[in-house]
Amino acid sequence: MKNKFTLEINNFAHINKANIDIGKINVVTGENASGKSSISKLLYSILAPSCEEGENLLNEFIFIASGNVSQDLKQYSNIDENILSTSEILKDLSNNSISIDESIEKNIIEQLYKTEKIAKEKIKSKKLQHYIHDLAYLFEIFHNKNYEIRISELIFQFLMNEFGNMKEIFFKWNHSKISMYSNDNSFKINLNLPLNDLETNSLENIEKNNLPSVKGNPFINDVVYVETPYILDLAYNNHDEFSSLKNSYYTNHVINGNFLYHQKALLKKLYPTYQQKTLRNSINSELLGLFDLFSGNIKYNDDNNKFEYVNDNNKFPMAHTASGIKTIGILKMLVKNNLDTNSLIIMDEPEVHLHPEWQVKLAKLVVILSKKANIIFYINSHSPQFIEAIQAYSKYYGLEEETNFYLTERNMQNNKFDFKKIPRNNLKEIHSKLGRIYEIIDEINAENDVKDFLDEG
Fold first, then answer.
1. How far apart are CA 185 and CA 177, in angstroms?
2. Which of 92, 159, 303, 428 has the greatest number of CB atoms lying within 10 Å of its CB?
3. Widest CA span of the chain, in angstroms?
4. R_g (Cα) of the chain, nearest Å
5. Overall pTM surpassing 0.70 (yes/no)
6. Cβ(407)–Cβ(420) under 8 Å?
7. If we measure between CA atoms, which residue out of 215, 370, 224, 363 comes closest to residue 287?
8. DSSP H or E run through 222
């Protein structure tokens, strides 16, 4: 890992306070609804925009958004010549019939703002007006050559998609403060969420006073967020949309899609022909041998645009494939297809569908991938077996000092949660918290014994 990072959060979602040092392996545990997944989404939204993924998303959802706005304008083309002209330009753009250079880009922006004015005066559709305005604003982001401004805008776009309507976020999480910085201060981002002017639904107006400040580059090659193994079922159940995802993404504000950014990006990475422009340090075939611990493979079938589980020449659809196999299969496909070194993998409860023995094997796999391929892991977990196995293997493979454990604790003053760093060589507090279930079961069994005694009497 080229840099170590610290993520500081105050008063965001269910989180009261979190100060998280991002090492090579990071494991967080605690109650449900204590903010663990919110941090996963924050990490993804902050770091993904600076990777190729952020630039690709910006390029691609502009093309898709152009097609949708073109369709919306088409029904009003008889009202004004400018509307017809804009609709045709956007249609050509979405079909890749024209390429964007700086002069064309500038003309499109001017054309869109003219059309927005017409939509306001003649069509009187606020919804269409905002869609046109937001598309013009996306072109301006694309046009901006200042790296830090572009990244700032992209982070806002990612946050808007991952957390939903940003207006609701500003109302709900007023006075939230988020900061992330590298240990050498070469990268820093600050995001404050005070309640500012929210009089319109325009993306630009919401952003003006709320854009994060960005300094430098985190130098992370890729960010992957594996929220659930059922992403493969989503692809299976939405295979028509997934077929288009092989070549494109969808934007949230202008496009209606069934996938969030992190889901779209993950699905695209699982598609076998996905390639980065430059594979800086390819992960070698030795790492694929680690997956020999698990039988079979998940493969993509080009004939029907669906994933399948293949084992001993037998093929099974995702609906008939065990969830644990999907979890391991996703990790294997990432390594096999395109995952770059110095990447971040975020995983929410990857052990949840695994037999305890497989949980231990997964922990070993995580540690070896982190050591040999320089992969950073941020993992939410509820399993004491998985957490203890991470502790044991990180020590065995010499990563103990770069492995961090955190426990969420309820703050009784505001009923939110603090993230407490637990000493890596003493996880008793985590075991005590997660082992509380056995005390509850013992209490129930004691009550059963009393009941049996009274019934016999």
1. 18
2. 159
3. 93
4. 24
5. yes
6. yes
7. 370
8. strand 222-226
